[in-house]
Design a protein that fits this description.
4-stranded mixed β-sheet, alpha/beta, two-stranded antiparallel ribbon, globular
């Protein structure tokens, strides 16, 4: 809504020293093409212009904090048609100093309500803000080998939610993967993602219940298709080589979605 208003304000200039420090701290941001690097920097500046950062529990939002989040958040939409429009349903980004204990409430099939606590490093609320733990944002500078990145995880949820709910399948563009309808495109997506998720979930169960080999991908991705999508996006963007070895079909699918306009 009111996207035209964004053009009335110039994006802030990112000082070169600050930008280079960000790239050095998060080396997975460095793209092989110079055009990618320039685009990443320009879009990060636009995100800084359009979003509002808030510190929780006394946490102070510094330029380092805001730039680290912005640069990583831009990575999934760098080549998507529409770019930052994928994040237009929210304005606020709330940064906590560390993990947060979230209160949860669920209802089981019998109608019984269960309340519990969950420790989270981030959360993306539908049509609401994104919450991140700065401790985990910083950790992403050294956890690429494990395919972990909290910023990409939560912003991947926002991409997934754009069509109204997180179900593990984002809104697919017309003609996606050579398809001729939205239904066909959705089928192509699920034909790759569903078996990958099912196999991964089985591996996690074997590892956790029967002492099998732990999975490289974060086992949290086995909780639902939407979490599998977010966890897979983390690994895809920060450790493409390892992700491709474990999930070649999903890698091909993600390339078709995330890199449609890449030269």
């Amino acid at each position: 809504m009111f996207k035209w208003l964004r053009g009335l304000r110039a994006a802030p200039a990112i000082p070169d020293a600050a930008w280079q420090a960000t790239l050095a701290r998060y080396p997975f941001l460095v793209q092989p093409a110079a055009a990618d690097a320039a685009r990443l920097r320009a879009m990060a500046a636009e995100l800084l212009r359009d979003k509002e950062f808030h510190g929780a529990h006394g946490f102070v939002i510094t330029d380092e904090v805001a730039l680290a989040v912005a640069a990583q958040a831009v990575l999934p939409v760098l080549h998507l048609r529409g770019g930052l429009d994928w994040y237009e349903d929210f304005v606020g980004i709330v940064i906590h100093p560390s993990e947060v204990v979230a209160q949860r409430k669920t209802m089981d099939e019998a109608g019984v309500v269960h309340e519990y606590e969950e420790v989270v490093a981030g959360e993306a609320m539908e049509r609401g803000p994104v919450m991140l733990s700065w401790q985990d944002v910083l950790a992403s500078s050294v956890t690429a080998d494990q395919g972990y990145n909290v910023v990409i995880h939560e912003f991947a949820h926002k991409i997934d939610m754009r069509d109204g709910g997180a179900d593990g399948c984002p809104t697919l563009p017309a003609g996606f993967a050579g398809t001729s309808s939205a239904r066909e495109a959705h089928a192509v997506w699920m034909n790759a993602v569903q078996p990958a998720y099912d196999n991964f979930r089985e591996q996690v169960i074997v590892a956790e219940r029967f002492g099998g080999e732990p999975t490289w991908l974060d086992p949290y991705g086995a909780t639902s298709l939407s979490e599998f999508f977010a966890v897979a996006c983390e690994a895809y963007f920060v450790n493409r080589a390892h992700f491709g070895r474990d999930f070649p079909e999903v890698l091909q699918l993600f390339d078709a979605f995330f890199l449609p306009a890449r030269p």
